[in-house]
């Protein structure tokens, strides 16, 4: 998917140039803000003498990696997938080479080249805008600003402008109306800090087998839960960019699960008003895919997490959440990315019942 995005944007270069030239006829462009997929337009802005800023939508921990990426690239001929080693990136905990974002795992791919070009261009920008805040990511921000992530090179100014969170009534995702009211009304009836919330983002799709394991684990845990379920990914590759169909809960979940858990659990189809849910008094834990927006929303709501990364930079986020920030438990995931019911049960119980889960919540409130 990433290579398609890069290619589409690259083909837009002539249109971007014309737009910038047209605007420049009647106004001075003080800043041109782009993201990691738009590196191809950086030379155009430079030719027109327009300052370019990168808006980095993940955290400073991921930014530290990308700034250090060219240093790692120059020090080895191996792919990350084949290193079988810990990477020591300034500002973040030692990270397994296999936990690096999937598109750059293999050195001889177009995705790797595209992301390496982005990493090399970061220091050439007029500045980097990152969705984080100083007290959350003190270490990586300090390492970046001290130039440790780009040794021997220039580091542009870094502006931490987070947390950027969706305000009430402006959350995307396709839900609304009675579904929101039913969800929040159900939470109103639950005891304080008693509900574990499970949601894995708009791209977090599980197989039927994995959904059944989650259901079994939740049922065995005995905990109150609010779980957002999306339909499994389609086998038809032509539909991979289309939103999934509405899930048929009766066919996706174990027989009788909804009836057996109706007094302590609520399963929502596809979407929930996440900011409102996380800030609700009854929610005491969050099983998350570690998407950066979800992380920020949980941190700002002082809700401890179980980290279950699925894609993008989420495995790196898990390392930071579990080992550095200490605000999350780490889900044990098999090599085939499958999680068994026993692990779901164990982690949910520990999050909601143990002193460790409570300690994480108290720390976040500070």
TrEMBL record:
Keywords associated with the record: Glycosyltransferase, Membrane, Transferase, Transmembrane, Transmembrane helix
SUPFAM superfamilies: UDP-Glycosyltransferase/glycogen phosphorylase
Name of one Pfam family that matches: UDPGT
One GO molecular-function entry: UDP-glucosyltransferase activity
InterPro entries from the UniProt entry: UDP-glycosyltransf_plant, UDP_glucos_trans, UDP_glycos_trans_CS
Transmembrane parts of this sequence: 20-46, 52-71
Keyword DNA-binding listed: no
CDD domains in the record: GT1_Gtf-like
Keyword Transmembrane helix in record: yes
Highest taxon, organism lineage: Eukaryota
Family to which the UniProt record says this protein belongs: Belongs to the UDP-glycosyltransferase family.
Protein name: UDP-glycosyltransferase 88F5
């Amino acid at each position: 998917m990433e290579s398609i995005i890069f290619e589409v944007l690259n083909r837009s270069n002539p249109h971007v140039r014309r737009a910038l030239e047209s605007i420049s006829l009647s106004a001075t462009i003080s800043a041109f803000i782009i993201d990691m997929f738009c590196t191809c337009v950086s030379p155009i802005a430079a030719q027109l003498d327009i300052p370019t800023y990168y808006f980095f939508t993940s955290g400073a921990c991921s930014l530290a990696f990308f700034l250090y990426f060219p240093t790692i690239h120059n020090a080895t001929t191996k792919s990350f997938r084949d290193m079988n080693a810990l990477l020591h990136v300034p500002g973040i905990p030692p990270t397994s080479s296999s936990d690096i974002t999937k598109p750059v795992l293999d050195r001889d791919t177009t995705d790797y080249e595209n992301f390496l070009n982005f990493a090399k261009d970061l220091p050439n920008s007029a500045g980097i805008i990152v969705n984080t805040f100083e007290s959350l990511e003190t270490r990586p921000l300090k390492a970046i600003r001290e130039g440790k992530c780009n040794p021997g090179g220039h580091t542009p100014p870094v502006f931490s402008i987070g947390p950027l969170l969706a305000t009430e009534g402006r959350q995307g995702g396709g839900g609304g109306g009675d579904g929101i009211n039913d969800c929040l009304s159900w939470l109103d009836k639950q005891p304080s800090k008693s509900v574990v919330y499970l949601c894995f983002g708009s791209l977090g799709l599980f197989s039927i087998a994995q959904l059944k394991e989650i259901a079994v684990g939740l049922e065995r845990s005995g905990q109150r839960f609010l779980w957002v379920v999306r339909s499994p990914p389609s086998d038809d590759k032509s539909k991979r960019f289309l939103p999934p169909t509405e899930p048929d809960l009766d066919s996706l979940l174990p027989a009788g699960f909804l009836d057996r858990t109706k007094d302590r659990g609520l399963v929502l189809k596809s979407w929930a008003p996440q900011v409102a849910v996380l800030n609700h008094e009854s929610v005491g834990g969050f099983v998350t895919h570690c998407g950066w927006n979800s992380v920020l929303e949980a941190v700002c709501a002082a809700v401890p997490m179980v980290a279950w990364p699925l894609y993008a930079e989420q495995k790196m986020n898990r390392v930071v959440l579990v080992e550095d920030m200490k605000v999350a438990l780490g889900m044990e995931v098999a090599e085939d990315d499958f999680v068994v019911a026993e692990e779901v049960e164990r982690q949910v119980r520990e999050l909601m019942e143990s002193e460790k889960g409570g300690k994480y919540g108290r720390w976040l409130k500070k």
